[in-house]
Amino acid sequence: MNQEKIYDPIVRVWLLIGVIMVFVQVIVGGITRLTESGLSITNWEVVEGTLPPMTRAAWIKEFDLYKKTPQYQEINEGMSLLDFKFIYFWEWVHRFWARFMGVVFLIPFIIFTLNGRVDRAMIRRLGIVVVLAALAAIFGWVMVASGLIERPWVNAYKLAIHLTIAFCVFAALWWTYLWSGGYKGVVVKEVSDKYIRMFTFVTVVFVFQMMIGGVLSGMKAAVVFPTWPDMNGQYLPKVLLDSSQWVLQNFIDYDKNIFLPSLVHFLHRNTAYLLFVVGVVSAVGLYRSCRDNSFARKGSITIIIIMSLQVLLGILTVISSKGKIPVLWGTLHQGMALMLLAALVYIFFILRINKKKNFPILPLG
Fold first, then answer.
1. 229: preceding bond cis by omega (within 30 degrees)
2. pLDDT bucket at 195, cuts 50 / 70 / 90
3. What would the mean pLDDT of 62-69 be, rounded to a whole number?
């Protein structure tokens, strides 16, 4: 971890643009999910699907394909062509932006490689990003396909996997951007091992919370308990105390009873409390111990602010989920989770540099 190389500014700008584009893609994905638009495009055409329908006949053809899906037949039967165009728009933007990111990434990569601005070390890191992005695309289609046959919405577990991979793409690219700026001037004072352990625990809790949040969103569990701090008048839903409900079938057919939505919602709430406490305690401790390291102190303050906002957004999302999840609050909640991930990656970047050694949580340095 002694590298002090700083890559060409144009390469760093390119990487930062990539980070921003991935952030936008995750946000658009959240809007697509919350507006129930993900199943509006029933096939995947890499080239031909780049442009939306351009004629009324083309729109009617797409609409007729959508009418064959369980979502239309069980939920949206009788919707107008105009309403269909709305949900089609968000799914098309989500797919188009993914294609656009591919172009923005590939063409400059080829140019930078040919003129020597990108070396083998950078290529290795970008290779990880490419593999993760490909996995996100594959699971994205697997997720959509799950809602075209069996259920009138996408499978919650597959959605959580897709979301987790997307977060990994963002984290890997953000780390690569930080790494591309070199380490000179960042190392000020060696940090105690306990903070590495503390933030490792915080990150593990965050990853679990993120995955649970994906499942919760996929099964729309927020609308089941739109109250806070209680869950419809209870801290622990009574259904979770019924041993007969703890069977495998309830985990598979989660949309046929209230058991799994109750469990996932309960876990998401209480994991949020745990994450907030351990995150703030870790950040305050790091802030106090790094009086000579402005990078670590700024990162600590950022984590405290973001965690506080995330808790507030989570509460607002829950209490506003009467009948359906509000698009605005749900999107902001997901976006803030991505910001928290960025802050955690930044903290690990600082800690790892100052310790000048590898540790398993981020094998990219």
1. yes
2. confident
3. 88
Distance CA 25, CA 354 (A): 33
Residue type (1 letter), 179: W
How does DSSP classify residue 115? T
All residues at 6 or more sequence positions from 43 whose CB lies less than 8 Å from its CB, including other chains:
49, 65
Neighbours of 160 (CB within 10 A): 23
- What does the buried/exposed string (b/e) look like for 108-126 if buried means 16 or more CB atoms within 10 Å of the residue's CB? bbeebeeeebbeeebeebb
Report pLDDT for 295.
78
Examine the pLDDT at 314 and tell me if it is beyond 90.
Answer: yes
Instruction: Give the model's pLDDT for residue 185.
Output: 45
**Residue 8 burial (10 A CB sphere; 0-12, 13-18, 19+):** middle
Radius of gyration (C-alpha) of the chain in whole angstroms: 22
How many whole angstroms from its chain centre is CA 60? 33
Only one residue has tokens 């590898």, namely: 358
- Here the tokens at position 147 are 């809602």
Q: Give the Cα separation of 284 and 347 in Å (integer).
A: 13
